[in-house]
Design a protein that fits this description.
Layout (H helix, E strand, L loop, with lengths): L4 H18 L2 H12 L5 H28 L11
Length: about 80
């Protein structure tokens, strides 16, 4: 007499459940963070980008001021 499908799959199911229960998500997360160099600091990135944008705006204002002061004509750039 052939075993029922449930009987055949029972050891596989038990093995999968044992493996799933053995996973420690906190340790896994810590291992990934360690390999990546630590937690990603989004507030620091945002501050860094804000600083770059502020510098870019200052440079643009200086460029505009210089073009007016020295009467420099810069043609518009058109990209196709």
């Amino acid at each position: 007499m052939a075993p029922k499908d449930e009987d055949f799959l029972k050891p596989i199911e038990e093995n999968l459940l044992r493996n799933l229960n053995a996973i420690n998500l906190e340790d896994s997360k810590n291992n990934v963070m360690k390999k990546l160099g630590g937690e990603f600091d989004y507030p620091r990135l945002s501050e860094f980008i804000s600083d770059i944008m502020s510098d870019a705006k200052d440079i643009w204002k200086e460029y505009e001021r210089d073009t007016v002061e020295y009467n420099i004509h810069v043609p518009d750039l058109i990209l196709d």
